[in-house]
Design brief:
Elements (H helix, E strand, L loop, with lengths): L5 E6 L2 E8 L9 E5 L5 H9 L2 E5 L3 H16 L3 H9 L6 H19 L2 E5 L14 H8 L6 E4 H16 L1 E3 L4 E3 L12 H8 L9 E5 L5 H8 L4 E6 L2 H13 L6 E5 L8 E6 L22 H10 L3 E12 L1 H4 L5 H10 L2 E9 L14 H4 L4 E8 L1
Parallel strand pairs: 2-6, 3-4, 4-5, 9-10, 9-12, 10-11, 12-13
Antiparallel strand pairs: 1-2, 5-6, 7-8, 13-15, 14-15
Length: about 375
């Protein structure tokens, strides 16, 4: 029990404590004030910026409104920040813009994470007009083991993930839906799915394929729908393994797919090995971001380094990856090609697709210059 983080605060003169829940491992705030509907947004924002957490005791809907007010203030630069921006060099490199964007995101998350909500032992919220979040918390945390405290921002993320899991994401290539679990990347960007669904399969048609880092299981399901008799889908995240198994069963292709816990490759060789690694070499700040950010390109380089040893003679490895990192100055095309060459691989072909997500065409996005040039590619690789 001593390893379980605890939040401590004082209620009147009485010391209190409860389990602290944080998906990304943020330590519990050291300064905690009890807050209710009488607290105005300007004071709350000042306290949050100073590192003081606000344990809410008022109406739940008012807490949500306060969080929205804090978000508006966080998104509006202060006079000092505007002055600093004007004094800054007129142009930044794409990499500098990316790192500044990530810093701003991190600071915003820290401030908004200072509004805290108590949870009873059964995940009920002991506040007026509070919704029923028990199912969402059970999916994210497992069975409750006593009272706890969580940031309202994180709790709303749990509820949103629960709704996505119920509703699912329609995948045209499957003629069905993928239901992402909490902490598992949702296939809302369909370009990489379309590439796997449309790229001609190696000849002769493979009877076996590996799906490396399966996540929700979407690519394994696409391969099964395309007629691959057996797919071994790997992941090292228990949430992903459970999510993939559930989705594959719901889609009726589970008899063709074996879900295996592994760091990258399963045992053996296959005539087709597919991998859609995280696209951006940067540090993730939460579990869900591991699907987007790959520190030092570790998964990408690991996949390339081990691919030749897991390809059957004449087989193909399909690397599906965006070139956003190249436009951000975080990884060059020359580096990627050098890693492919060093792994004893040759490029057999490449299929490209432009992104369709809203940010690609949003000129107000901080990374618009890079996003506007982004291309997602399926690289066909074989042993050199």
């Amino acid at each position: 029990m001593s390893d379980i983080p605890q939040l401590h605060w004082t209620d009147g003169d009485t010391p209190r404590a409860a389990r602290w829940r944080s998906e990304n491992g943020t330590p519990p705030p050291k300064k905690v004030l009890l807050a209710d509907d009488t607290l105005n947004a300007d004071t709350a924002y000042r306290l949050a910026c100073e590192g003081t957490a606000l344990l809410w005791r008022g109406d739940f809907h008012n807490a949500r409104q306060l969080l929205q007010a804090l978000a508006r203030r966080a998104d509006k630069p202060s006079p000092a920040a505007r002055k600093k921006a004007k004094a800054a060099p007129p142009s930044r490199t794409p990499a500098e813009a990316f790192h500044l964007h990530r810093q701003a995101q991190g600071q915003r998350a820290r401030v908004l994470g200072m509004v805290l909500i108590p949870l009873d032992a059964d995940y009920a919220i002991p506040l007026r007009r509070a919704p029923d979040v028990a199912a969402a918390c059970l999916e994210a945390y497992g069975p409750a083991d006593g009272p706890s405290v969580v940031s309202l921002r994180e709790l709303l993320g749990r509820v949103g993930a629960h709704e996505w899991r119920k509703k699912g994401v329609e995948i045209a290539a499957l003629g069905g839906r993928i239901h992402p679990h909490y902490g598992v990347f949702s296939p809302v960007r369909g370009e990489y799915v379309d590439l796997v669904a449309s790229t001609p399969l190696p000849r002769p048609a493979p009877a076996l394929a590996f799906d490396i880092g399966t996540g929700s299981g979407v690519l394994a399901a696409v391969l099964a729908k395309r007629g691959v008799a057996k797919i071994v889908a790997t992941d090292q995240d228990p949430r992903a393994l459970a999510c993939a198994g559930e989705n594959l069963a719901r889609l009726g292709v589970d008899k063709h797919v074996e879900v295996v816990e592994a760091d990258l490759f399963p045992d053996g060789r296959a005539p087709l090995v597919v991998c859609n690694p995280p696209w951006v070499p940067a540090r993730p700040s939460s579990a869900i971001e591991y699907a987007v950010y790959d520190p030092d390109s570790r998964m990408l380089r690991g996949f390339l380094a081990g691919l030749a040893a897991h390809l059957a003679p004449g087989g193909e490895g399909w690397l599906i990856i965006s070139d956003l990192a190249e436009h951000l100055g975080l990884r060059s095309r020359e580096e990627l090609l050098a890693w492919i060459d060093a792994a004893g691989l040759a490029v057999l072909g490449r299929h490209d697709i432009r992104p369709r997500h809203p940010k690609a065409g949003d000129p107000d996005d901080p990374l618009h210059a890079a996003r506007s040039k982004e291309v997602t590619s399926l690289w066909r690789l074989g042993a050199a």
